[in-house]
């Protein structure tokens, strides 16, 4: 989508595009929404969505409201956004999915909720990194277990041809490496 052609009625607005349009009041509203998503403030976020705030709004880094709520561990905000139609596969500008953000932070309940709402267990951005890779890198064993139970591929390779096990070993994530080395169960 060409940033210059995005309109205020679009379902996938970015705060940068709003700023380019010169509408500072709308930009302030967007910033407030991102603050509520980061903080898990469900009532004001609900009110903003009820008033027409696009659920797919993205900030200048491409983070959606869902990405921020997922990354910062706010289960009820994630639930609200998913129920309102947020896309669990929408990547940010770094190519990360909300599931990858939840995996990185070790948010098992959020990861489960995202999976239950259609997040692909082996979904990736352009770099090919999966949530399992992020969980393995940072030794988030409960997330590794959840993702394996949900069918994550141990064999998936990213753009650099690395697997989750490769990342676990490289970063000294012993528990995850041991689990990924064990036979599939």
Name the descriptors:
mainly alpha; Serine Threonine Protein Phosphatase 5, Tetratricopeptide repeat; 11 helices; elongated; disordered N terminus
Explain this structure to me?
With 185 residues, this protein is mainly α. It has a domain at 8-87: Serine Threonine Protein Phosphatase 5, Tetratricopeptide repeat, CATH 1.25.40. It is 51% helix and 0% strand. The chain is built from 11 helices and no strands. Mean pLDDT is 89; it is low at 1-12.
What structural class do helix, strand and pairing data support? mainly alpha
Q: What about the largest sheet? A: none
Termini separation: 43 Å
Instruction: Tell me the CATH architecture of the domain at 8-87.
Output: Alpha Horseshoe
CATH topology of the domain at 8-87: Serine Threonine Protein Phosphatase 5, Tetratricopeptide repeat
Beta-strand residue percentage = under 5%
